[in-house]
Design a protein that fits this description.
Length: 89
């Protein structure tokens, strides 16, 4: 189990990859085959088999949590679409 503070997309050797970023340890964990999970206590985690990444930040509301969850899913989906268009192109 690792902790992260933000997510970002990076382009490495022409491939788009989404990373969970741990700002404290200056680590970037690539996210593949992800499942974003939330809990009733405003916590968020990302499963990227075999690892689990726990969001270190705090959410003020369920809406804020859901918005961040949707942002992560969209970021991963967009990166996959970009990679697929490169392969097809």
């Amino acid at each position: 189990m690792m902790f992260f503070d933000r997510v970002e997309e990076r382009q490495i050797k022409g491939k788009f990859i989404v990373f969970a970023i741990n700002e404290i340890d200056d680590q970037a964990y690539p996210l593949k085959n992800v499942m974003v999970q939330t809990s009733g206590v405003l916590d968020l985690s990302i499963s990227s088999y075999p690892e689990i990444y726990i969001y270190r930040g705090k959410f003020k509301s369920e809406e804020e949590l859901q918005a961040f969850q949707k942002y992560i899913v969209k970021l991963v989906r967009d990166a996959n679409e970009k990679n697929n268009s490169i392969i097809r192109g």
